[in-house]
Amino acid sequence: MLSAEKIQSNWDRYIEVIKTNISKERTDILIPFFEKYQERFMMMPASSKNWHHSAFAGGYVDHVLRVYDCANELYKTWSKMGGDVSTYSVEEMHFVALFHDLGKMGQQEGEYYQPNDSQWHVDKLGQVYKFNTDIPAMKVPERSLFLLQEIGCKVTQNEYIGIKIHDGLYDESNKFYFMSGQKETKLRSHLPILMHQADHMAAQIEFEIWNNATDAVPKTSKPSNASKGDKTLRAAKKINTDNNPNLSKATIDVIDSFFKD
Fold first, then answer.
1. Which domain holds residue 14?
2. What is the mean pLDDT of the chain?
């Protein structure tokens, strides 16, 4: 969870980073858009499940800023190790980092994430938010690009590809870009790879922050959310011929028959 002060300072920094790193031609379009939906952007989560990453109020901006910071550090590494950073501009890298997840806002007339009204899903699955099914289903990268064109913000080819495939091979449809069978169809720039690394790195760090905070809470010896399946498996492991004389060979044969063709 983030404090109100942290949410506000993240937002102030986010707007300043956009103004500082993106051309005036585009900030003249982007800043009014973000100001129009300021409260919504400030309070958006970055994911739906608490164990995924930043599934809390203010999580979206916090995540995007971390991706931006990770991208800057990885840019230095790629350059230092001989990567060809001349194939894209620093502004293009910053643009992809800052708007790769824009689609998580949903649409202008409908939010993507909604507080989950099912306490069972919150307690058992960690699904703090649910998806708004009243808006058309779209992948986040594609909705990001849709929103950018909807407000009239131009993107370069590098930015388009960087946003579209930033999820890497977690999205099966990205195999076309990442698993080319010939030189001519390979990526012309490592920007999408750098951005996937930055996004994955940020998400993993956010998970670890959450997990470490969770581990700090004392746990009971018996998990409160143990399913009936878990209990059954634990009970089954205790049953064998050593501690249960009544478990005859015939009974074992019957049990084994369930697992044969």
1. 4-215
2. 87
Q: Are residues 136 and 233 in the same domain?
A: no
Predicted model pTM: 0.81
Q: In this predicted model, which residue has the larger pLDDT, 73 or 231?
A: 73
User: Which range in 175-184, 224-233, 234-243 is most confidently predicted, on average pLDDT?
Assistant: 175-184
Q: What is the 3-state secondary structure (H, E, C) of the chain?
A: CCCHHHHHHHHHHHHHHHHHHCCHHHHHHHHHHHHHCHHHHHHCCCCCECCCCCCCCCHHHHHHHHHHHHHHHHHHHHHHCCCCHHHCCHHHHHHHHHHCCHHHHCECCECCEEECCCHHHHHHHCECEEECCCCCCCCHHHHHHHHHHHCCCCCCHHHHHHHHCCCHHHCHHHHHHHCCCCHHHCCCCCHHHHHHHHHHHHHHHHHHHHHHHHHCCCCCCCCCCCCHHHHHHHHHHHCCCCCCCCCCHHHHHHHHHCCCC
Looking at the fold, whether 235 and 138 belong to one and the same domain comes out as: no
